Amino acid sequence: MLAIRGRIFPSTNQLVSLEAALENGKVIAGETRIGATRVPIRRVRLVPRKVKPLPDVLEAIAAADLILLGPGSLFTSIIPNLLVSGVAEAIEKSSATRVYIANLMTQPGETLGYTLADHVRAIHQHTARKVIDCVVINNEPLAPDVLRRYKSKGSEPVLVDPAELRRTGLHCLFDNLLEVHGVVRHDPRRLASFLLKRFIQP
């Protein structure tokens, strides 16, 4: 749609696993087990702790005009990539606009009960870096039947708390970005168009 030729780099090519420390003191390992836990997650970490990034990743971050984080699983997708040595530091130093695309729904177990500010707070607590300038948020409500269906599976819309986000210095941008065809997702065309108009096109 955008006539863009992209390149995809893993954040690291080392063999690495993921561990989570839970609020009850237990430690569990593996993305599948972490995503399925019903005990709140206190912190995730990489094993081994020191993991080298791909040089291409740091070069791409340094050359970027726009850096997008998310949408995606908070503790098993977004944060682990930021824990690779040098990645969060490179994002913090970048002159690009750094945008977090807010998840539409909580994930059973992993982020149940999390507000949008909780998502952002978890990212900043894990990285100890400023890696987000603004947050892109869907403002289109879900139909009652869709809400009921997701609630029965332990998922609900991520509660948006703009005042708390702004207190942390983040700019909030809203638009109708919703697509519902059996599952709740961001509409890729609307999202891409919004990002281009807001951040790239003059």
Topology:
Blueprint: E1 17-22, E2 27-29, H1 31-36, E3 41-47, H2 55-63, E4 66-69, H3 74-82, H4 87-93, E5 97-101, H5 116-127, E6 134-138, H6 144-151, H7 162-167, E7 171-175, E8 178-181, E9 183-186, H8 188-200
Parallel strand pairs: 4-5, 5-6, 6-7
Antiparallel strand pairs: 1-2, 1-3, 8-9
CATH architecture: 3-Layer(aba) Sandwich
Question: Tell me, what is the CATH class?
Answer: Alpha Beta
The total strand number stands at 9
Spatial extent as radius of gyration: 17 Å
Cα(first) to Cα(last) distance is 19 Å
The figure for the number of domains is 1
- Put simply, the count of helices is 8
Broad structural category: alpha/beta
Low-confidence stretches: none
Query: How would you name the CATH homologous superfamily?
Result: CofD-like domains
Q: Note the main sheet.
A: 4 strands, parallel
Integer average pLDDT:
94
Global shape: globular
Give, in spatial order, the strands making up the sheet with the most strands: 4-5-6-7
CATH topology: Rossmann fold
Percent helix: 25-40%
The helix/strand order is EEHEHEHHEHEHHEEEH
Q: Which percent range describes the beta-strand content?
A: 15-25%
